[in-house]
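Appendix B, Record 12. Input sequence as logged:
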Amino acid sequence: MNIIPALRTAALLILLCAGAAAHAAAINMRVFTINDHLWCFYDGRPPQAQVDPADHNWADFGANNVGVATYVIHQGDRALVYDTFPSVRQAQWVRDYLTRAGIRHFVTVNSHWHLDHVGGNAVYADSDRIATARTRQTLIAHKAAIESGRDEGPPAIDPLVIPNLTITADTTYFVGDITVELRPVQIHSADGLVIYLPGDRVLLAGDTLEDTVTFISEPASIPDQYRNLLAMRGWGFDRIYPNHGNPDVIAKGGYPLALIDTTRAYLRRMVEHAHDPDYLTQPIGPYIADAVKAGTISLWWAYVDAHRANLAKVSGAYKDRPLPDLGPITAPAGE
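Logged structural output:
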């Protein structure tokens, strides 16, 4: 079905002050041509030796250090931009590139409300901005804290530009004659929105999947996420492009369906071991060793800290509760 526009915002925000930048590090943008209508813009993922361990802000910890991508579906002078990077500086780099390529009409899609995916929205304040209704509601609720740097700590995103169009169900959008399916999912966060390109059999996965491991932001809903990942696996795509992944893999054709299996296995192990006495000190290696050996993922240094954060969140959610039954590893025969 076609998008039914929600009520537009009353006025466009004036944008691009220097203080809106989420991170002052030099941009190291790479542009990957996936096909004739899909580009990946990729920044970050610096070697560990180049990173100051004392600089532990949200823009680096959750995005730039692990590597962050946005994707652009384009045809003629039109483009759909999937997520807008942590900062205005990064988003403006992308828009300038697209403008030089002849793009004149933009629409953005935010995969979910987390700050590294909406930090550059101000660059597209003159364009329609699509998200799930829950993403819009959450950003409105957090707007003052985000703009003041109190939500996840500094850097602040100021101004925070809110999506003005919302969806609540699977929605078909067209970029020229390219079919783009916007699909809400409860994976990683309850307000998730992924993009399926049926003509290419490609999934733009947002944060539902990552290499090395997923950031667990909502541990209480892991059982639902685990089942939803299996359902998503059956949609019909055969290549996956996550927002946080290995740039070499993205540049060479993306990830296979095994990335979903690896993510489910990690979530399952995180839950099954949550009552272990030494749980909070368990290293990342045993949780992903089989997937690394198979070549599905690689161990990137910044995910060691991400795994520690995941352990703390899962422990907090389940230490005083019975562990949930995640059901079968794969779908029963016949499904």
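The two ends are 27 Å apart (CA to CA).
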